[in-house]
From TrEMBL, chain A:
<dbReference type="GO" id="GO:0046872">
    <property type="term" value="F:metal ion binding"/>
</dbReference>
<dbReference type="InterPro" id="IPR001041">
    <property type="entry name" value="2Fe-2S_ferredoxin-type"/>
</dbReference>
<keyword id="KW-0408">Iron</keyword>
<dbReference type="InterPro" id="IPR012675">
    <property type="entry name" value="Beta-grasp_dom_sf"/>
</dbReference>
<keyword id="KW-0479">Metal-binding</keyword>
<dbReference type="InterPro" id="IPR036010">
    <property type="entry name" value="2Fe-2S_ferredoxin-like_sf"/>
</dbReference>
<dbReference type="Pfam" id="PF01799">
    <property type="entry name" value="Fer2_2"/>
</dbReference>
<keyword id="KW-0614">Plasmid</keyword>
<feature type="domain" description="2Fe-2S ferredoxin-type">
    <location>
        <begin position="4"/>
        <end position="80"/>
    </location>
</feature>
<dbReference type="InterPro" id="IPR036884">
    <property type="entry name" value="2Fe-2S-bd_dom_sf"/>
</dbReference>
<dbReference type="InterPro" id="IPR006058">
    <property type="entry name" value="2Fe2S_fd_BS"/>
</dbReference>
<dbReference type="GO" id="GO:0016491">
    <property type="term" value="F:oxidoreductase activity"/>
</dbReference>
<dbReference type="InterPro" id="IPR051452">
    <property type="entry name" value="Diverse_Oxidoreductases"/>
</dbReference>
<keyword id="KW-0411">Iron-sulfur</keyword>
<dbReference type="Pfam" id="PF00111">
    <property type="entry name" value="Fer2"/>
</dbReference>
<protein>
    <submittedName>
        <fullName>Carbon monoxide dehydrogenase small chain (COdehydrogenase subunit S) (CO-DH S)</fullName>
        <ecNumber>1.2.99.2</ecNumber>
    </submittedName>
</protein>
<keyword id="KW-0001">2Fe-2S</keyword>
Length: 161, 290, 784
C-alpha cells in the first residue's frame, strides 16, 4: 500500500506523517491526529460539518485528500481558543444559544471566523449567504446569525475604534 | 463512504504530469481543486487507477491580460476570480457568475480549470466560457493546442480533451468597455446547481442598436448551449422591453437534449428558460446602456 | 405528589445560557464516532441495491480473503439473533418481523444483507464490494394505494397482503352531522415522505469483556435504558451485565428513538469477535435505511353549516409504512397518531376515521418529531383554508368559529385537553404579523400580478409522552421515568436522569429545576444522563417529554433532598426546619440571617457527623423519584408570509410568526431554540424535502445533493412569542414544547403558498411545494 509523506502545520504544531493516498484530510485529522472536533456529516461536501481553516480560509476537509494538504497551515476547532479564552465567535455562540446538539458547530464557527476575517461588518443577508453552505438541523439558524452579528460587533469594538 | 484505492502521483512539473497522463491514459485522472472529484471518489462513482495531483505544479495559476484577453491559469482558485481586479475590469461576467458557484469554502479550493474540465451541465463557468467565446489552452506530451469553447463541451461531463490532455489555461476575450452582461440562475436553494441559467453579453453599437448578442444557457441541456435564436432576435434591434421579451421567448428552442432530475423535470426547465434568459438579457441591456 | 412545588425564583423561567456549551464549542465533546478505543475494528454493511428481490446466494469468500478483513457475516451466521418486531399491543395489527440481516428476501433499497468487519472502514468498504449477492429481482410497489390493490406485489408473503392494519372508528353521530350539513367538502392530500436527517448519523460501538461477560454498548440513541433492555433480551446477556452509554448525540428527532437491526448486529459482533466493533453510519445509509417519516394519503370530508361551523368530519388515513411495520410503534405510528389529532383545536362533535397501514418497498417508517400529527395538521389546515374560501370567509374567521375555548375539554377522540390558549394564540399571531394590513397588501399586489400569501396554522400538541397521553393518542405504551438527586459531602449536587439530551439542553434546564428547589447555584449542579450505569431507569427523550417529566421528577427528588437538608440543618442550628430558608447555597434562619450554615457544612455533617443522624432516618442526601404525568397539551399558532414568483414557482418566505404556549417555561431561550429549529424542519417539509423512489423501488434521493435541507438562506426571520397557560395537571404547570414547530409549520408554509396562488392551489395534492409543482398549478389555472 502506497504511503504518501506529508508535512503540515495543524493548530500551530508541525506534523509529519505518512498517509494512504485515498485518506481524506477529515479522516487524517480525526483518526490519525485524534482531533475529533472536525465532524463528518455527509462526506460529499454539502453539509459543512467538516470545515477547517486553511491559511485562514474555510475549506471542507472531506473534499481534500490528506496528501493534498502537504505544506498546509490548518486550524481546526481545537485550535481556535487561546488557552482558556474562547474566540469571540465561540463566546458569541454561547451567549446567543447558537448551538443545540453541537454537531454542526465546529464547522459553523470556523466558517463564521473566516467570514469575519474577510468581512468584519457583514449584513444579515451576507451572514446568511456565507453560512448557507453549513447545514444545521437543530437551531433554524436565527440564533447562529445573531451570534455572528454579535461577534462581529465585539471584534470591531475589540479592535479599538 | 470512503474512496476506493488508487495510486497517487504528485508531479513537480507540468512535463511530468503530462507524461503520467500519456502513460496511463484513461486509467489516470488529474486532481485539481478536488471539489467535484473527491466526492465522486468518496461515493465510489469515480475509480481511477491513478490520481495525478496537480497541486504542486507551478505556473498554472497566473492571471494576466495579454492580446486583448484575460488569460487565466487552470489552477486559479474560483475564490480569486470573485475579487481579482483584472477579472472585474475585463470579464466582469466571470466574477458575477462565480458568486453562484457553490459556497465560499468550495470556491477556496475549486479551480476554474477543474470546473471547465468537469463540464457539469448545470455549472456556470462552461456557460460563461461559451458566452464570451473563450479559448481553452490545452497541453499534452504531444504539444499544445487551443480549443474554442464552442467545440469544447460535448455532453454531460464530457469535453473535447483527449485522455492525455490537460487544460492549462483559458483565454477570455476582454469585454469592451460599455458592454453589458448579465448572469441569472434559477435554483431551489442558494448555491444549488441551476435548474436553468443564462449568461448574456450584449453590446450597443453607435447607431443605438444591438451590435452583439451572446446568450449561453446552462442547467437545461446536456451541455451549455448558445441560444442562437435569441441572439439573432436581438442583433440589429433597439432593445426595449418588448424586444427583449420576444427574443427571450425563443430561448427554449436551443434545448435539444434536455436535463431532468428530482429537482426539476425537462418540462419545468424548458418553461423557465425564457424567464431566466429574459432576466439575464434585461440586466445586460441595462448595463449596455439600452 | 403535589403540583405547586416548583418555585420560580432565580433559576426557573430564566434565560440561563447553557452550561454544556463550552465543550461543544471547543471540539471536546465526544460523539459516537469520536470515541476511540484501542483495538477497535470497523464494520460496513452490504446493503440491498434492489427495492424487492429474493436472495438466491451470498458468496463471501472474496471479501473474507481481503487483507485487513476480520469477518463477514450474513443472516445464516447470526441465526441466533431474533428478528425485530413491533410489540404494540393493538388488535388487528399484523406482524412483519424484520431479520437483523436480510434473510431470503430484501424489501427496500438499503436493507442490510451482510456485514463486513475490518481493520478500518476503508478496507471494510472495499470488502463489502467483494461480497457477491445473487438477487432475483421482484416487482416492487412504492405507492401505498397501489400496494393495497389485489394484484400488488406482496412484501410479506405469509400475510398475503400489504395491509397490516385497517380499522374504521365512528365517534359521535357522524351520519346525523352529514345529513344536517349545508355543504359537504372533500379533499385529498398525499403528504411527503421526509426524514429527520440529524447532522450526526447513527452509530454504535460494542465492547465485550469475555472474562466478566460485560457488554458495554455505545450508541447514538435517544433511549439508553430501553436499548439496554432490548439488547439483553436479544443477545441473551444478563441485563445487569449490559451497560449502554449514549454519548453526545448530534440530533435525533425521533429517528434514534428505536432499536435498529444494525445495533443488534454490532452488539453481537462485539461479543463474538472479542474486539471492540464500531459502526459509523454514512449519509447514504442514513438516508436510505434509517427510519423515514410523515408520508400519508389523507382524505378528508367535512360536514359544514352555512355559517362555517364544522358539524362533523370523516378521515381516511393511509400510512405508507415502508417495508416493515417497524419496531418502534409499528406502521401505525403515522396514521393512528394522525387520526387522533385531525379534530385538533376545533370543536368537532362527530368524527369517523379509517386508519390503514400499508407496507411498501421503501425504508420503514418510524418516529420523527410530531410523528403522525404533522400530516394530519397539514391536511386539515389546508382543507379548512379551502372550505373558508369556498364559503367566502376569511380563513382566520373560519377558525374562530370552530375553536374550543373551554377547558378541560375532552375531544371526540378521547384526548383531554387540560388547558389551552387557542383563541389567544390565534389573535396574538395575527396581530404580530399585521394580518389585516397584509390582506390589504395582498389584494393590491394581486392587481399588479404579484402573489403574496398568508398561511395560518393553529395547533394543539400532545406532549410529555407518558402513559396517559400515549393512551389518549392511541398508543398503549406504559411509561416510567426516574431522577436521582444527590448532594455529596462537600455540598455539590448531582442530578441523574433517565431522559437524555440530544440538543435540548437538559444539563441546563434540569439543573435550573434542582438549583431552584435546593437553593444553590446551577454552577454547583451537574446533570448526568445517557449512561445506564449512572442514570436511573426511564424511557429516554422524545415526544416532548423531558421538560415535564424530567423537570417533574427532578423537582420531586430535589424536594425530598431539600427536606433532608433542612432536617439536618435544623439539628445543627437548633431551630425547627420550617424556620429555615436556603438561598445561594446558604441555609439560614428566616429573620436571623447571621445564623447560617453553608451547604458544604450541612452536607459534610450529614455524612460524617453522627450526632445529626436521627433514629430511623436515611442519612444519605439522596432521593430517587419517579414521574409519569397526567396528559398535558401545548398549543400555538404559526403564521407564514410568503411571496411566490409567478414565472418560476419559486417561493420566498418573508416572515414566520410563531406564538406558542407550553405553560410554565423552564428556560425561554431553550424553548425558542426548539421552536425555531422545528420550524426550519417544517420549511424543509413544506418546500424542499422529499424521499423519492421510482416505481422499481430505486431510491432517487440518496445524498444531500438530491435530498435538499433548508439552509440559512431559506429560513426567514422567525418571530417567536410566548403565552403561558400553566398546565393544571403537571408539576409546575410545565408542558412540552419540542414538536409544535414541526407539527404546525408545514401547514403554515404550504398554506401561505396556496393562499398566494389561490385559486390555482386547488389542484395541488402533494408536497413539497417545489417550484415545478407551484408553477404547474399556476399554469393549469392560466395564471402564469
Amino acid at each position: 500500500m502506497q504511503r504518501v509523506p506529508i508535512t503540515l502545520t495543524v493548530n500551530g504544531r508541525s506534523i509529519s506523517a505518512e498517509v494512504e493516498a485515498r485518506m481524506t484530510l477529515a479522516d487524517f485529522l480525526r483518526e490519525q491526529l485524534g482531533l475529533t472536533g472536525t465532524k463528518l456529516g455527509c462526506e460529499h461536501g454539502v453539509c459543512g460539518s467538516c470545515t477547517v481553516l486553511w491559511d485562514g480560509a474555510a475549506v471542507r476537509s472531506c473534499l481534500v485528500l490528506a496528501a493534498q494538504a502537504d505544506g498546509a497551515n490548518l486550524t481546526t476547532i481545537e485550535g481556535l481558543a487561546t488557552g482558556e479564552a474562547m474566540h469571540p465567535v465561540q463566546q458569541a455562540f454561547w451567549e446567543h444559544h447558537g448551538l443545540q446538539c453541537g454537531f454542526c458547530t465546529p464547522g459553523m464557527v470556523l466558517t463564521a471566523v473566516a467570514l469575519l476575517e474577510e468581512n468584519p461588518a457583514p449584513s444579515e443577508e451576507e451572514i446568511r449567504e456565507a453560512l448557507s453552505g453549513n447545514l444545521c438541523r437543530c437551531t433554524g439558524y436565527q440564533n447562529i446569525v445573531r451570534a455572528v452579528r454579535a461577534a462581529a460587533e465585539q471584534m470591531q469594538a475589540g479592535r479599538g475604534s | 463512504m470512503k474512496p476506493a484505492a488508487f495510486a497517487y502521483e504528485r508531479p513537480g512539473t507540468l512535463g511530468e504530469a503530462l507524461e503520467a497522463l500519456a502513460r496511463h491514459g484513461s486509467d489516470a485522472q488529474p486532481l485539481a481543486g478536488g471539489q467535484s472529484l473527491v466526492p465522486m471518489l468518496s461515493l465510489r462513482l469515480a475509480r481511477p487507477a491513478l490520481l495525478v495531483d496537480l497541486g504542486r505544479l507551478a505556473g498554472l495559476d497566473e492571471l494576466v491580460v495579454r492580446n486583448g484577453a484575460v488569460e487565466i491559469g487552470a489552477m486559479v482558485r474560483q475564490r480569486r476570480l470573485e475579487r481579482d481586479p483584472l477579472v472585474a475590469q475585463h470579464v466582469p461576467v466571470l466574477a458575477a457568475a462565480t458568486r453562484y458557484v457553490g459556497h465560499p469554502s468550495i470556491r477556496n479550493r475549486g479551480t476554474l480549470g477543474g470546473s471547465l474540465a468537469h463540464a457539469d451541465p448545470s455549472a456556470e463557468y462552461p456557460a460563461v466560457a461559451l458566452a464570451v467565446d473563450a479559448e481553452m489552452v490545452v497541453r499534452s506530451a504531444r504539444g499544445e493546442r487551443t480549443i474554442p469553447a464552442r467545440d469544447f463541451f460535448l455532453g454531460p461531463f464530457t469535453t473535447a480533451l483527449a485522455e492525455d490532455e490537460l487544460l492549462v489555461a483559458i483565454r477570455f476575450p476582454a469585454l469592451p468597455a460599455g458592454a453589458g452582461w448579465g448572469v441569472e440562475e434559477i435554483a431551489r436553494r442558494h448555491g444549488d446547481f441551476a435548474l436553468a441559467g443564462a449568461v448574456a453579453v450584449l453590446e450597443r453599437g453607435p447607431d443605438g442598436t444591438c451590435s452583439r448578442a451572446s446568450v449561453a444557457l446552462f442547467g437545461v441541456a446536456t451541455r451549455p448551449l448558445r441560444a442562437t435564436a435569441v441572439e439573432q432576435a436581438l442583433v440589429g434591434r433597439v432593445l426595449d422591453n418588448v424586444t427583449l421579451r420576444e427574443a427571450a421567448a425563443l430561448a427554449a428552442d436551443a434545448i435539444d437534449e434536455p436535463l431532468s432530475d428530482v429537482h426539476g423535470s425537462a418540462t419545468y426547465r424548458r418553461q423557465v428558460t425564457p424567464v431566466v434568459v429574459r432576466r439575464a438579457i434585461e440586466a445586460a441591456a441595462a448595463r449596455a446602456g439600452f | 405528589m403535589t403540583l405547586q412545588i416548583l418555585p420560580r425564583g432565580k433559576w426557573v423561567g430564566a434565560r440561563v445560557k447553557r452550561v454544556e456549551d463550552p465543550r461543544f464549542l471547543t471540539g471536546e465533546a465526544r460523539y459516537l464516532a469520536d470515541i476511540q478505543i484501542p483495538g477497535t475494528v470497523h464494520a460496513a454493511f452490504v446493503r440491498s441495491p434492489y427495492g424487492h428481490a429474493r436472495i438466491r446466494r451470498i458468496e463471501t469468500s472474496a471479501a473474507e480473503a481481503l487483507p485487513g478483513v476480520i469477518a463477514v457475516y450474513t443472516a445464516e451466521d447470526v441465526a441466533a439473533l431474533p428478528p425485530l418486531a413491533s410489540g404494540l399491543p393493538i388488535e388487528g395489527l399484523k406482524p412483519t418481523p424484520q431479520s437483523v440481516l436480510a434473510k431470503d428476501k430484501v424489501r427496500f433499497v438499503g436493507e442490510a444483507v451482510a456485514v463486513v468487519v475490518a481493520e478500518n472502514r476503508y478496507i471494510a468498504e472495499d470488502a463489502a464490494e467483494l461480497v457477491e449477492v445473487e438477487y432475483e429481482p421482484l416487482p416492487a410497489v412504492t405507492h401505498a394505494e397501489r400496494a393495497m390493490a389485489a394484484d400488488a406485489p406482496i412484501l410479506h408473503e405469509d400475510l398475503g397482503t400489504n395491509v397490516v392494519y385497517q380499522k374504521v372508528t365512528t365517534l359521535g353521530d357522524v351520519e346525523g352531522a352529514f345529513a344536517q350539513a349545508d355543504r359537504v367538502f372533500r379533499r385529498r392530500f398525499h403528504t411527503n415522505r421526509f426524514v429527520a436527517s440529524p447532522m450526526e448519523t447513527r452509530g454504535c460501538l460494542s465492547v465485550y469483556e469475555r472474562a466478566s461477560g460485560q457488554l458495554t454498548f455505545y450508541s447514538s440513541t435517544q433511549m439508553p435504558h430501553m436499548l439496554r433492555l432490548f439488547l439483553s433480551l436479544f443477545l441473551g446477556i444478563p441485563e445487569h451485565k449490559v451497560r449502554v452509554i449514549s454519548p453526545e448525540v448530534g440530533g435525533g428527532f425521533g429517528q434514534k428513538m428505536t432499536i435498529y437491526p444494525e445495533e443488534v448486529v454490532i452488539a453481537y459482533l462485539g461479543k463474538v469477535l472479542g474486539r471492540p466493533v464500531k459502526w459509523v453510519e454514512d449519509r447514504w445509509e442514513n438516508l436510505a435505511a434509517a427510519t423515514h417519516a410523515k408520508e400519508q394519503i389523507i382524505e378528508l370530508e367535512a360536514a359544514v353549516r352555512a355559517d362555517g361551523k364544522v358539524l362533523g368530519m370523516k378521515a381516511r388515513l393511509i400510512g405508507d409504512g415502508g417495508a416493515y411495520s417497524f419496531n418502534t410503534a409499528s406502521a401505525l405510528i403515522e396514521p393512528l397518531a394522525a387520526a387522533g389529532i385531525v379534530p385538533g383545536v376545533y370543536d368537532i362533535a362527530a368524527y369517523q376515521h379509517e386508519v390503514i397501514a400499508v407496507c411498501t418497498n421503501k425504508a420503514p417508517v418510524g418516529a420523527f418529531r410530531a410523528v403522525g400529527w404533522t400530516a394530519a395538521q397539514t391536511a386539515r389546515e389546508l382543507f379548512f383554508d379551502e372550505i373558508a374560501r369556498e364559503l367566502g370567509l376569511d380563513p382566520a374567521e373560519f377558525r374562530r368559529r370552530n375553536l374550543i375555548s373551554e377547558f378541560p375539554h375532552t375531544t371526540v377522540t378521547g384526548m383531554v385537553y387540560d388547558s389551552g390558549s387557542y383563541r389567544e394564540s390565534l389573535e396574538r399571531a395575527l396581530q404580530l404579523v399585521g394580518y389585516d394590513e397584509l390582506r390589504r397588501r395582498q389584494a393590491e399586489l394581486r392587481q399588479q400580478g404579484r402573489y403574496l400569501g398568508i398561511g395560518i396554522s393553529l395547533y394543539v400538541e400532545p406532549t410529555a409522552w407518558g402513559s396517559e397521553i400515549a393512551l389518549q393518542a392511541g398508543f398503549p405504551f406504559p411509561s416510567h421515568d426516574n431522577a436521582t438527586v444527590t448532594i455529596d459531602p462537600t455540598g455539590k449536587v448531582r442530578v441523574a436522569v433517565s431522559v437524555h439530551s440530544h440538543g435540548q439542553g437538559h444539563e441546563t434546564t434540569l439543573a435550573q429545576v434542582a438549583a431552584e428547589i435546593l437553593g444553590v447555584s446551577i454552577d454547583d449542579v451537574i446533570v448526568e444522563h445517557g449512561d445506564t450505569e449512572r442514570a436511573p431507569w426511564g424511557m429516554g427523550t422524545y415526544a416532548s417529554r423531558s421538560a415535564v417529566i424530567g423537570g417533574g421528577m427532578v423537582a420531586l427528588a430535589a424536594q425530598e433532598v431539600r427536606e433532608k437538608v433542612l432536617r439536618v440543618a435544623s439539628r445543627l442550628l437548633e431551630v425547627a426546619p420550617e424556620d429555615l430558608e436556603i438561598q445561594d447555597g446558604t441555609v439560614f434562619v428566616r429573620g436571623a440571617p447571621d445564623r447560617s450554615l453553608s451547604m458544604f457544612q450541612v452536607a459534610f455533617a450529614a455524612y460524617l457527623d453522627g450526632r445529626v443522624r436521627a433514629e430511623g432516618e436515611e442519612p444519605l442526601l439522596s432521593a430517587t423519584k419517579f414521574y409519569d404525568p397526567r396528559a398535558t397539551y401545548s398549543n400555538g399558532c404559526i403564521v407564514t408570509v410568503c411571496e411566490v414568483d409567478g414565472e418560476t414557482g419559486l417561493v420566498r418566505l418573508d416572515k414566520i410568526v410563531a406564538v406558542e404556549d407550553c405553560g410554565t417555561m423552564l428556560n425561554p431561550m431553550i424553548v425558542e431554540g426548539q421552536v425555531m429549529g422545528a420550524i426550519a424542519q417544517g420549511i424543509g417539509g413544506a418546500l424542499y424535502e422529499a424521499m423519492v423512489y421510482d416505481e422499481n423501488g430505486q431510491l432517487l434521493t440518496d445524498s444531500f445533493v438530491t435530498y435538499a435541507l433548508p439552509t440559512a438562506t431559506e429560513v426567514p426571520e422567525l418571530v417567536i412569542d410566548h403565552l403561558e397557560t400553566p398546565s393544571p395537571v403537571t408539576i409546575g404547570g410545565i408542558k412540552g414544547i419540542g414538536e409544535g414547530g414541526l407539527l404546525a409549520s408545514p401547514a403554515s408554509v404550504a398554506g401561505a403558498v396556496l393562499d398566494a396562488i389561490w385559486p390555482a392551489g386547488r389542484a395541488i395534492e402533494e408536497l413539497p411545494l417545489t417550484p415545478e409543482r407551484v408553477l404547474g398549478a399556476l399554469q393549469k389555472q392560466g395564471g402564469a
